[in-house]
Amino acid sequence: MIKLLYISTNRDWSGSEELWARSSRLFSAQGFAIASITSYAHEQLRAVPGEKLLLLPPSAASTGLPERVWRKIVKPKDKVRQFIEQYAPDFVIVSQGNNYESLEVMQLLGSMSLPFVTVTQLASESFFWAFTNDRLLAIQQAYRSATCNYFVSEHNKRLTDFMLGGTLSNAEVIYNPCKIAQSVPAITQPPSGVYQVALVGRLDCWHKGYDLFLQVIGRPEWKKRPVLFNIYGTGPHSLLMEQQITHLGIQNVRLHGHQADVAAIWAANQLLVMPSRMEGQALALIEAMACARTAVVTDVGGATELIEDNDNGFVAAAATTSSIAEALERAWAGRADWHQLGQKAAATLAAKYPADAVEYFNASVANYFKTAEPA
């Protein structure tokens, strides 16, 4: 039996975890042995099969120790090595939230002569700080030691190659899975004459650009228009956003918290807005398009690999208030066409994405470890 190990270097569960978690379940159903290592606890991990190593430190409240002290005592790297040695995987899948965070894991796997692939969910120009003289050669070697390096958008693959000085040769683009398993009814006219617009994602202004969006809809013209902005998600900037909304006097925005039922979001909303400063290939965009909803996106990550300006959606040239305001104005002016644009968005997704992104990923990974199958 082939033994697979998944290592996620993310610090919490987010949309970027969906691919590796679903991949593990599919491989398990096909008879492969599965184990995983994570640095966070989340109810979604219960569905991940096999042995698990959790590196999350106890809370300071229960131990009296801050995380930095706990990590000096426990030494997670030693625990990871011990777990790997005991489990003895045939192949390892490393999932990283950004394109530099798994360096130590990749180095460890290389030192143990274990074959592995990486999956990178996010690359951004703001990460150049990690590719400095004292780290660059080590990061280049880590990527070279991987059997393959996967990226969820062509943009992220191309940018990471540039950050690595043009040395990335073993790289492929794969796709994030869509959680929609049911059709969602079209909304051709706004209920009660009020248009419903959704923003879906972690409440993290640094990443998702919600601060930029709030500054735009805090302008007088948006306050008097028949539109309600529904924000779905939780995150580290929820309190700040509440205060910003109050400060700007915005009455037509609602913070709904996390909504697990994606279909319910798109049964109520006609348009997605993503004012992000950085993205890989956002699940929120994939899900909206699968539900035949058009979108306003910033030109970051793989957004324009799916959204073509004025064809199936609207593109803000940059993650700035002026660019987002301009794109939102064009979207509002063309609101009568949102349904038609949403239909085009769904057709675009169907043409560019595999029917099952997880099956596509697993088939690709299997090509790399099939030589390890016992005779």
From TrEMBL:
Lineage: Bacteria, Pseudomonadati, Bacteroidota, Cytophagia, Cytophagales
Keyword terms of this UniProt record: Transferase
Gene3D superfamilies given in the database record: Glycogen Phosphorylase B
Protein name per Swiss-Prot or TrEMBL: Glycosyltransferase
GO molecular function, one term: glycosyltransferase activity
Xref: InterPro entries: Glycosyltransferase_grp1
Record-linked Pfam families: Glyco_trans_1_4
Keyword ATP-binding: no
